[in-house]
Amino acid sequence: MSNLKFSGHDTFHCRQQWLLKGVELIDNKDLKGFHNLEDAILELGVGKNMVQAIQYWIRAFGLVDEDKKLTDIAKLIFSVDRGYDRYLEDEGTLWLLQYLICNIDVASIYKLIFSDFTNERISNEFDERQIINFIKVKIAESSSRETSENTLSSDFKVFIQSYFSGVRTLKSLEDDFNSPLIELNLISSISRENGVMTYKLNKENRSDFPIEIFGYCLFDLYGNNSGIQFKDIRKTLGSYFVISNEGLEIIIENLCREYSEFIFNDDAGIRQIQIKAVSEEFKLNLLQKYYRRGL
After folding, report:
1. Is 156:136 a contact under the CB 8 Å cutoff?
2. Helix (H, G, I), strand (E, B) or coil at 257
3. CA quadruple 1, 93, 19, 118: dihedral positive or negative?
């Protein structure tokens, strides 16, 4: 583990429509994306700090590449002409975003909590102090530069706001200010003691998880691989999506039953998945099939 990244969001969690607005700004041929701050402020209708936050979140979700150009997944979801789910109304899109925020690793705290922290501990419960102490250890183990406790605390608060809204307000305010990932119900609060809130990862079977979305993420993460061990998938996708071991087996079995490109073997107690797909086109076809099912 190296090059852990923190801050950049200006203490703003990602709002419901920010990803669409950011993609549209970059896609607008008459503007220069985020290069002209004044134009960006006018186009997005927010202040300078929020403009910077939107720019940060579209990077964190993998919607722009290192050259600040829209990625294929950004075009597939948000394109004006053929975007599958521009307004994030489909739960499958939210699972895609959850995968991206963990896997892209621009906002390192997401992968650190969902994968690293939970795989090193038996309990699914945590509080801010536990997470900050854990991250400090990981920073010390890596080549990352030392990060202040205030920065880590800010990252933790933004992380929690991404998944847990606390007291619900009016629906119109939820639409404007809540993160889209809240709908996945991955995190809940369980107690407050001496002013410290304890949270829990809501690990479930998720047997109705869309298999095409899971297949896309599996192929994107591992590519053509002759033997991906179940335990590795559990530590990555299983952890990102907060799926129980039993639920993960069901999802993989359903995927392999539906698509011959995925093969699940259980030889001598070693569970492995083989991917026989031959091209990136197959990965994109999985998304196409998923979104067209609702038409």
Report:
1. no
2. helix
3. negative
Average pLDDT on 199-204 reads 96
Sign of CA dihedral 239, 240, 245, 249: negative
Measured distance CA(106)–CA(265) in Å, rounded: 34
Model confidence band, residue 245 (pLDDT cutoffs 50, 70, 90): very high
Classify burial at 195, counting beta carbons within 10 Å of its beta carbon; exposed 0-12, middle 13-18, buried 19 or more. Answer: exposed
DSSP structural state of residue 179: -
Strand duo 270-275 + 262-267: pairing: antiparallel
270 forms bridges with which residues in the sheet? 267
Residue 54 in tokens: 């939107």
Task: Please state, in angstroms and rounded to a whole number, the distance separating the CA atoms of residues 151 and 8.
Answer: 10
- Cα–Cα distances in angstroms (integers) from residue 179 to residues 66, 94, 228, in the given order: 25, 10, 33
- The pLDDT assigned to 136 comes to 94
Calculate ∠ Cα 217-93-80, nearest 5°.
115
Measured CA to CA, the distance from residue 91 to residue 214 in angstroms comes to 12
Assess whether pLDDT exceeds 80 at residue 243.
yes
Among 8, 42, 10, residue whose Cα is nearest residue 25:
42
Tokens of 93: 């899109």
Residues 17-59: pLDDT tens digits? 999 999 998 988 766 678 888 888 888 889 999 999 999 999 9
Q: Tell me the pTM.
A: 0.93
Please name the helix (run of DSSP H) or strand (run of DSSP E) that holds residue 57, with its range, or none.
helix 48-60
How many angstroms separate the CA atoms of 55 and 106, rounded? 12
pLDDT in tens, 118-147: 999 888 999 999 999 999 999 999 877 889
